[in-house]
Amino acid sequence: MDRLKEDIKSLLSSYSEIFFIDSYRVGFILVLITFFNINLGLSGLIALFSAYTFAKFLRMEKEFISSGFYTYNPLLVGLSIGYLFKITPLTVFFTFASGILTFIFSIMLFSLFSYYLRLPILSIPFVVISSTIYLSVSNYSNLFVNSLYPHINFSFLENYLPIWMTGYFKSLGTILFLPDVMAGFIFSVIIFSVSRILFFLSLIGYYSGTLASGLLTGSLFQAFSDISHFNFILISMALGGIFLIPSVKSYMVALTGVITSTIVLSAIKTFWALYGIPAFTLPFNIITLTFIYVLGIVGFPYIARIIRKTPEETLDFYLTNLKRYKGSERTLHLPFSGKWTVYQGFDGKWTHKGGWKYAYDFVITDEKGNSFKNDGLNLEDYYAYRKPVLSPVRGRVVKVISDLPDNPIGQVDRENSWGNLVIIQDPRGFYVEISHLSYRSIKVKEGDWVEVGSYIGLCGNSGYSPQPHIHIQVQLSDNVGGYTVPFSFVDYICDGKFYSNDLPVENSVVEPVFPDKSLELKFSFVLDNSFEYQIFREGKEIGTTRFTVKMAPDGTFYFDSGRGKLYFGKYEGTFYFFRLDGDDEYLKLLFESLPKIPLAYRKGLRWEDHIPLRIVTDRLKNSLILFVSSFKHNFADVKYTGEFIDSRKIKGRVQSSVLKAEKEYYVELDEFLGFKSVKTEDVEMRLIKIEYK
Fold first, then answer.
1. Are 1-152 and 156-305 in the same CATH fold?
2. Ramachandran class of 376: left when φ > 0, alpha when ψ lies in -120 to 50, beta otherwise
3. Are 78 and 49 in contact (CB under 8 A)?
4. Distance (Å, rounded) from C-alpha 103 to C-alpha 48?
5. Res 88: pLDDT
6. Which residues, given as ranges, of the chain have pLDDT below 50?
């Protein structure tokens, strides 16, 4: 029975995917609407069923076909056939075969587009196969004789609405081959209820494209009567809210795409008319794919790397992660132990310029901010001199220079600017250079493998160095002093605050921290572990909930409650809750009470994080705030502050300036694994038992 439910959800999702919506519930409504024309509705289902059945016959993975992304093209082809021909045994056979053909063609195109172009296939299979079908049926006289039928439209609304409104609704309805005001009106209500951003984009797409077309043709009435302008709606939604992060810039790109598509649409209609074929969605595919490809080449910053269920969710995910993960993927540990001071950072005021701007210098200072004692005239006066230098990464040592003398204070070696150094090749695809080490203090040799924290040598004053300090940079070659690239530091403390992945500012005092084994074990969740909690609301027990550890196809673990999935993982000494799918209120409570925790304990240690807006707001507020945020990305922020009370107790605070709200949370860790209790003002979860599998 569960298998049948999943199959039905997958089929329904194919309908919603046509409007860029991931919802089987919306898909169910769309199925019903297609039965405004029973031939249309049945043909769509037949083509979809044939494609889905064939996919299962080929034993394709469940995840590959369950979303509906790969089966909405056969659905569109079925609808296009149903729009032409009524249901007969002959058209059923024809539709069934066409559905399979479209699915096979979709898989082939997907493989080519994803590998060579890194582009989605959109509805290209539908355009190609439907055009082929429309050409082929001219030879199938039996279809024309027995299967053509007149269309009945619910046209009474057209008598009460102006042409500029009926044109929008009919164009919207045409997306599912229902060029009818009633169908289009229902579609608009569905889009508005799911996503205000998509609804807004549908409006600006249609009206900007139609007005541009009217100006070019000289007839606004003709422009508003052209139902092929549904292409403008699809282009606007795809560029403005699906494949780009919703923003003022994405809206401008969408507007530009729609305006330019008027030329493409006119040309295609003229050429296709020679063969009696409608334009279908060809203009939408050409413009959307061209823009996405070009924007990718030029490095447009608002390309959506991860697309969520709605543009609002994509925007929320993007904005939250932008704040949560400030650092880069080239992560380094600090190359020392104890407290050091940032002497110079990226694009520093002295030597970190041009191709060498991505570098950091560290010294040791006293309570007065001085890096030396006495008069600072001797090397031994400097606190950093001959202090241990540690490996910031794990990797292979590829270059060592160790026989250059330490410069006396007041002198520099201009010929050997980098001084004594070690270059380490990181397996992640970059090199780390650590420079200005002390004369013959380096204890590693070329070819050695080092781990994070391995002893390398001593801090010195060799090369172009005004005082003893550690210089560190990341580059893409093993050349001494190569051009630098951005990086960031992980697991350090500054002013009593823990930073998981960031860049300390100049003159700040930083100290590395290392994972606590006991804390790491508390967050080492094993597949199929189950955690059962009692739930109390305002002190009264109201029931229980259970979370089970599962693993996603990409290897990410998550807590599954049956009503939601909370994804988590450990990365570079920090435990994170990455994201929440679904609406389970107790998984939400877990997320907002502890979105991340350093796996290193110090009493009173604080840290900051950010929480997705959807976790702390209801759907209506979330939708409205994110719509405004699409115009001003810093409009809303939900900030989390955590603090260790002791080794097992954490106090958290969530604040939001837009919501004007503040909430406190208390989390107690279990002695062995996971969370013993999670408590807020009115709700508490208490661990009853853990089941190990």
1. yes
2. left
3. no
4. 9
5. 87
6. none
Map residue 277 onto helix, strand or coil: coil
CATH topology of domain 331-486: Glucose Permease (Domain IIA) (2.70.70)
Residue with tokens 């503040």: 662
- How many other C-beta atoms are found inside a 10 Å radius of the C-beta of residue 427? 9
What is the Cα Rg of the chain in Å?
31
Bridge partners (DSSP) listed for residue 342: 362
Give the span between the Cα atoms of 377 and 373, in whole angstroms: 9
CATH class of 1-152: mainly alpha
How many CB atoms are closer than 10 A to CB 189? 12
* Nearest residue to 392 via CA among 340, 343, 431: 431
Residues 6+ apart with CB under 8 A from 566: 547, 558, 559, 577, 579, 580, 584, 587, 590, 591
Residue 146 has a pLDDT of 56
Say which DSSP state 405 is in.
P
Q: Residue 680's closest CA among 668, 672, 688, 689?
A: 668
Tokens at 261, concatenated: 């598509």
Q: Residue 439 to residues 362, 393, 406, 479: CA-CA distances in angstroms? A: 18, 23, 6, 21
CB 71 within 8 A of CB 51: yes
Distance (Å, whole) CA 191 – CA 188: 5
- Rounded to whole angstroms, the Cα distance separating 389 from 470 reads 8
Max CA separation in the chain (angstroms):
105
Length of the chain as a residue count? 693
3-state secondary structure 307-350: CCCCHHHHHHHHHHHHHHCCCCCCEEECCCCCCEEEEECCCCCC
For 618-654, give one letter per residue: b (16+ CB within 10 A) or e.
Answer: eeeebbebbbebbeebeebbbebebbbeeebebebeb
- pLDDT of the residue at 104: 92
CB 307 within 8 A of CB 195: no
Which two tokens mark 426?
A: 């990181």
Convert the pLDDT of each residue in 61-76 to its tens digit. Answer: 665 555 556 688 999 9
Is the domain defined by 520-691 classed in CATH 2.30.29? no
Is residue 488 helix, strand or coil?
A: strand
pLDDT tens for each residue of 175-224: 999 999 999 999 999 999 999 999 999 999 999 999 999 999 999 999 99
Which residues, 6 or more positions from 57, have their beta carbon under 8 angstroms from its beta carbon?
Answer: none
Spatial distance between the Cα atoms of 263 and 266, rounded to a whole number of angstroms: 5
Cα(640)–Cα(609) distance, rounded to whole angstroms? 5
Q: In 328-472, which ranges are continuous DSSP H helix?
A: none
Helices (H), 218-337: 220-224, 230-237, 248-272, 282-297, 311-324
CB atoms within 10 A of CB 438: 24
Segments making up each domain of the chain, as ranges: 1-152, 156-305, 331-486, 520-691
CATH code, 156-305: 1.10.3430.10
